[in-house]
Design a protein that fits this description.
- The chain is α+β, with helices and mostly antiparallel strands.
- The protein folds into two domains: 8-194, D-amino Acid Aminotransferase, Chain A, domain 1; 197-309, Nucleic acid-binding proteins (OB fold (Dihydrolipoamide Acetyltransferase, E2P)).
- Helices cover 15% and strands 34% of the residues.
- It has five helices and 17 strands.
- It has helices spanning 87-94, 102-108, 131-141, 157-166, 240-250; strands spanning 8-11, 21-25, 30-37, 40-45, 70-77, 112-121, 124-125, 148-150, 171-176, 186-194, 197-209, 212-221, 227-233, 254-255, 271-273, 278-283, 298-303.
- Strands 11, 12, 13, 14, 15, 16 and 17 form a seven-stranded antiparallel sheet that branches.
- The longest helix has 11 residues, at 131-141.
- It is globular.
Length: 315
């Protein structure tokens, strides 16, 4: 089976209220599609990068799914010590390069596969069917277990979003039950309403404290390939060991020339680097059109996307 780029929701400021909407928790994980047929089982993320060996818990499809061939869409999540889904934790699995360590990391970072859609079943594409029918198919063939779960739907989006706020979780996804599944598509039939914002950014500089990186300067590209400074942060979910590892990554790529098109607000003690490493950043507010940088940004994790994919959202 050929891999596909999954259907994506658009960002919305409001929760739609019509009775044909389904509301789901927005899980703070990584998108994984499962491809299974007689030839075997393979896993790919939303960028069509293979993750088959990263999540061996998901490979015995016959143990949880009654299908000869199937493509399942879902989110792999991992929990932090506070019991909430943690993007930082799941990235410990997803970014693993030494695959001989998978068994060890499996114990340290258990994962759950939250399945929410189906694209293909027993030789036929089902993407043209409405979501309501696809969900019926999904529930008829998948048997949830410890690490395999079906995403629950809720009837009251406003109430669900308030619970997400109270729990300081990412937000909700609203899905039109009439919607077909468009491979590589993104439109308002699926909407995400966030409790806070997040962006992917490239590191363009850093500052040191005692020889260890204590903050990074962040940027995103416009359509002309120019890197704009969007803020700096020294907070987030990175451990001390991860800050030391980041130091080892950034020092060798230090350069004398500033990579940003304009001088950042924090630059006197900064070291510039060739834009190479990318991060997921959470923030409370961003008024880009007013020339403001991210407010209260914090690093969630290093990620594996190419720097040029870190695009300004309003260009």
């Amino acid at each position: 089976m050929e891999t596909v780029i999954p259907f994506e929701p658009v960002v919305s400021d409001a929760v739609p209220q019509e009775d044909y909407w389904r509301y789901e928790i927005k899980w703070d994980g990584t998108r994984i599609l499962t491809y299974h047929d007689r030839a075997g089982t393979r896993l790919f993320n939303r960028k069509e990068r293979e993750r088959t060996h990263h999540y061996p818990e998901l490979l015995d499809v016959r143990s949880y799914c009654k299908a000869e061939s199937v493509i399942l869409d879902g989110e792999v999540i991992a929990f932090a010590e506070d019991g909430k889904p943690s993007f930082h934790e799941v990235m410990r699995r997803d970014l693993l390069q030494r695959l001989e360590r998978v068994k060890t990391v499996q114990t340290a970072v258990p994962i759950t596969y939250m399945i929410f859609d189906i694209l293909y079943l027993n030789g036929q594409s089902v993407t043209g069917r409405p979501l309501s029918e696809r969900l019926e198919l999904l529930h008829s063939i998948v048997a949830p277990s410890g690490s395999i779960q079906l995403v629950s739907g809720h009837d009251n989006g406003g109430s669900l979003f308030q619970v997400m706020r109270q729990q300081d979780m990412e937000g909700i996804v609203c899905k039109d039950l009439r919607s077909t599944y468009v491979e590589g598509g993104k439109d308002a039939r699926w909407r995400k309403v966030k409790n806070y914002g997040d962006v992917t950014a490239v590191i363009g500089g850093f500052t040191l404290n005692g020889g260890i990186v204590n903050a990074v300067l962040l940027g995103q590209y416009d359509n002309e390939g120019r890197l704009w400074y969007i803020g700096h942060t020294g907070t987030g979910k990175l451990t001390r060991a991860e800050w030391r590892n980041l130091t080892d990554l950034l020092k060798p790529i230090a350069v004398s020339e500033r990579p940003f098109i304009k001088q950042p607000e924090r630059h006197k003690d900064a070291y510039w680097v060739t834009p190479t490493y990318t991060v997921k950043v959470q923030y409370s507010e961003w008024r880009w059109r007013e020339g403001r940088s991210l407010r209260q940004p914090s690093i969630q994790s290093l990620i594996s996307i190419p720097p040029q994919e870190c695009k300004l959202p309003w260009i």
